[in-house]
Amino acid sequence: MKLPRLTIALYITLIFASGMVVGVFGHRLYTVNTVAAKTARNPEEWRKRYTVEMQNRLRLEPQQLAQLNTILDDTRKRFDQVHIQHRPEIEAIKQQQVAKIRAILNDEQRVEYEKMREERKQHEKH
Fold first, then answer.
1. Rounded CA separation 31/25 (Å)
2. What Å distances lie between residue 18 and 3, 15, 28, 31, 99, CA to CA?
3. Is the CB of residue 51 less than 8 Å from the CB of residue 69?
4. 4 DSSP 8-state letter
5. From the CA atom positions of the chain, what is the Rg in Å?
6. 48 CA to centre of own chain
């Protein structure tokens, strides 16, 4: 059975169009995920974007921009102080978690668990 040329052309166009749609959605999904991951990791980059947005949208004057930077510096210092004050409590909670996990593992699993913990420590350093 011979298909008319118009039908063949229609099928080819539909296949091409569906490939484009899948490609666009795949690219958008990939781009959104990678951008979100990059912005969450760098506080300095966040601060730059925040400062630029504040300056552009609010039309801050130089004196206001300087005050904004002072406020952000002060806030960062206060967060750091709170983090340092609560570090021993946080470490105690982490150690309790590790002890509880070790308690449910057998000897072979504990060895592998320790390897996993060491790998995580190495990864965090980089």
1. 10
2. 21, 5, 15, 20, 53
3. yes
4. P
5. 27
6. 17
Query: Half-sphere exposure of 106 toward its Cβ, with a 13 Å CA cutoff?
Result: 1
Assess contact for 105 and 113: CB atoms under 8 A.
yes
Per residue in 52-63, pLDDT (tens digit) is 999 999 999 999
Any idea which residue has 């060491």 for tokens?
118
Q: CB under 8 Å to 53, separation ≥6 — which residues? A: none
pLDDT tens digit sequence for 22-48: 888 888 877 765 555 554 568 889 999
What whole-number distance in Å separates Cα of residue 87 and Cα of residue 1?
Answer: 77
Please, which residues have CB within 8 angstroms of residue 58's CB and are 6 or more apart in sequence? Answer: 64
